[in-house]
Write a structure and sequence with these properties.
Elements lengths: L1 E5 L7 H12 L6 H17 L7 E7 L2 E9 L12 E7 L8 H15 L4 E6 L11 E5 L5 E6 H5 L4
Antiparallel strand pairs: 1-2, 2-3, 3-4, 5-7, 6-7
Helix pairs in contact: 1-2
């Protein structure tokens, strides 16, 4: 059975999420020791933000197996520090891609934003024509060539995605 959890409720998945995050978006490391250090830093950062209203990490489980995760971050990089909060780290494990799990994660994080009375979520990505299907609106291209999008949470509520 598929179910979304806040990682606070399922802390046994902290390490797996941190390792996947490091492999997908982290700087490449030359040693297992450095990789472990970065993973531990990611775990600490998640735990330190458990009660931050501008931070959330949701995980998608099927029968206690991690399928993927998604987050809300207060900031995401240095390109637009004037914008907050950010839709971040949508990740589905390779073996589960192509089955609609990203839509489940997307809907869950937008629902979480509604519960937290977050009016807008910002997103940066190098993907082309991906997040529009979830209701994101293109704003601009950043200096690093990533595209900046916005999810208007109230406007999306009235649409069927």
């Amino acid at each position: 059975m598929l179910k979304i959890y806040n990682i606070k409720e399922k802390q046994e998945f902290l390490r797996e999420v941190a390792e996947l995050t490091q492999r997908e978006w982290g700087h490449q490391t030359n040693s297992e020791e450095e990789f472990e250090k970065r993973v531990q830093n990611k775990i600490s950062k998640i735990v330190q933000n458990f009660n931050n209203p501008s931070y959330c990490k949701l995980i998608l489980l099927e029968n206690n197996t991690l399928i993927g995760f998604i987050s809300i971050f207060p900031t995401d990089g240095d390109e637009r520090i004037d914008l907050t909060p950010w839709y971040a780290t949508m990740f589905v494990k390779k073996e589960y891609r192509g089955h609609g799990y990203s839509k489940i994660l997307n809907n869950a994080i937008l629902s979480e934003a509604r519960k937290r009375n977050i009016p807008k979520l910002y997103l940066k990505t190098s993907l082309n024509n991906y997040y529009e299907k979830f209701g994101a609106t293109y704003l601009e291209t950043l200096q690093n060539r990533e595209k900046l999008y916005c999810f208007d949470i109230k406007a999306i509520r009235s649409k069927k995605i």
